[in-house]
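Figure S7 source data.
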Amino acid sequence: MKFFADTADVDAIRELNELGLVDGVTTNPSLVKKSGRDIVEVTREICSFIDGPVSAEVIATEAGAMIEEGRKLAEIAPNIAVKVPLTLDGLKACKVLTGEGKMVNVTLCFSANQALLAAKAGATFISPFVGRLDDISLDGMELISEIRQIYDNYGFETQILAASIRSVNHAKAAALIGADVMTAPPAVIKAMAAHPLTDKGLAAFLKDAKEAGLKIL
Ligand code: E4P
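Tokens for the predicted erythose-4-phosphate complex:
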């Protein structure tokens, strides 16, 4: 399973990258707004040290304008994945941009049928939003399962990018289902390392090492 950092915070991406836990990055207009930076400038900086796909989202809503924005974003670096919304215009833009050899991440997916359309449009990634479905008392993880089954039924190569991941339990469930990629805030990815028995065990080992006067260096 690939891990994408779901943030436009360059320092947070660098920190996670040093842990070897960043296979790519996803941003959206809200995350760029939170960073307080210009979209092209911050995306360029992220691409300067991340080799994997870096998603940058269009803000146009009409296919022609999305394609133009997508081309401009793709000029930033070869590893840009142009993010388009799951609308009919977005699907049209997806088909054109993937036809030009660009990676496309179709975002704001909330149903299996939407994911099926994105795969038929040649999307590189489909981003089903787990947390936002849970927020309205639906089952986000059920959507990941449905898409996995449909894509496997027909051998679609579109990668399932589980998005809107809010917790370590979401991360585990997405991995068990077989999502190809998970994008999560750095805090969630780091929290996956935590376990109270690890802390307790380490404290006991350190205590014994001190009492025994152990030295390695
Ligand atoms: C990433 O591609 C999505 O834009 C992001 O995961 C959405 O997360 P949110 O629902 O927590 O805003």
